[in-house]
Design goal:
It is a single chain. The chain is α/β, with parallel strands linked by helices. It folds into two domains: 218 residues, TIM Barrel, CATH 3.20.20; 87 residues, no CATH class. It has an eight-stranded parallel β-barrel with strand order 1-2-3-5-8-9-10-12, surrounded by ten helices. Strands 6-7 form a two-stranded antiparallel sheet. A hairpin with a 4-residue loop joins strand 6 and strand 7. The longest helix is centred in the middle third of the chain and has 20 residues. It is built from eleven helices and twelve strands.
């Protein structure tokens, strides 16, 4: 089981805040540092304001050395797919091949309204999302010297040189995730290197992993070629007082976090991660909400990770 750090900078973080967490996660041996792709805080002003995901990751690509970097999830509504393919390939080059692209359809209407970003209905968003997956992966996989053309309902690329190429070939790993019962499993089976489920319980994990496995089998793909992961909020303490302190710092209750996240003592958290592993999860993205509490990361590295 691999543990990765997942942050939500729209809730309030500077680049330096993110860099401090990324460097500590790298030093402690976590598998990756991921961030959300949002432009508006949720339930908070998010001061001093949002940072752009791929601008941030470009900086981290140069300011870190070994840790992998990525998004959960980049919103397909934010960027044209040709531009996104160039951005991610560029950051992959800057990092020496350490980037992963989590790509989703987009869901948070308020941030689109706040910053003037079009927000189509659900059906159109998923149609655009499917085309984006096809275009981004198609551009990366087009051999050098050849051209890429895509004529869809929402995007048209004609005789693209499909440059630049990322360091990782045939491209950075692509993550698809979500709870949708029909289109999400099919898109994951076709395009994803990893399928991720955010903030769901064991029963939903079992059911949705099953749908994605069935989607793989329907197109002749071996489900073993997919990496399976969950994202869960983190609140670990050496004792109950520390659990309560960390829960209060993020405005949550320990009992609710124990039910819906990874909370409690290291022993409790190891046991719960083990139950996700029994369902096939190979990675867990630890949603860290208090970015100033680097001791939280150290506790997990010292008391949780070695027991998995």
């Amino acid at each position: 089981m691999e543990l990765r750090i997942f942050t939500e900078p729209q809730q309030g973080a500077t680049y330096d805040d993110l860099l401090a967490v990324a460097l500590e996660a790298e030093r402690l041996g976590f598998g990756a540092f991921f961030r959300s792709d949002h432009y508006l805080g949720m339930g908070t002003e998010g001061l001093p304001g949002p940072t752009d995901a791929w601008t941030t990751l470009a900086g981290l690509a140069r300011d870190t050395s070994t840790i992998r970097l990525g998004t959960l999830m980049t919103s397909a509504t934010f960027r044209h797919p040709g531009v996104l393919a160039i951005q991610v390939a560029g950051v992959d080059q800057m990092s020496g091949g350490r980037v992963e692209l989590g790509l989703g359809a987009g869901w948070f209407e308020a941030e689109h309204t706040a910053y003037g970003i079009p927000f189509p209905g659900t059906g159109e968003r998923f149609d655009r999302y499917e085309e984006q997956l096809a275009i981004v992966t198609g551009l990366w996989r087009t051999p050098e010297g050849e051209r890429f053309t895509h004529r869809g309902d929402h995007y048209e690329l004609v005789d693209s040189p499909a440059l630049p190429k990322p360091v990782q070939q045939p491209g950075p790993p692509v993550l698809v995730g979500g709870r949708g019962k029909r289109r999400t499993p099919a898109l994951a089976a076709r395009y994803a290197d990893e399928f991720n489920l955010p903030f769901v319980d064991l029963a939903e994990t079992r059911d949705q992993f099953g749908r994605v496995r069935a989607g793989c089998e329907a197109i002749g793909r071996d489900p073993a070629t997919m990496t399976w992961s969950n994202a869960l909020v983190l609140c670990v303490g050496a004792d109950e007082a520390e659990v309560e302190r960390r829960a209060a710092a993020i405005g949550r209750e320990p009992a609710e976090l124990r039910e819906n996240g990874l909370a409690g003592t290291p022993e409790e958290v190891v046991d719960k991660i083990g139950r996700y592993a029994e369902l096939g999860a190979q990675r867990v993205y630890l949603q860290v909400l208090d970015l100033a509490d680097l001791d939280h990361l150290r506790l997990v590295a010292e008391e949780v990770a070695p027991r998995l």
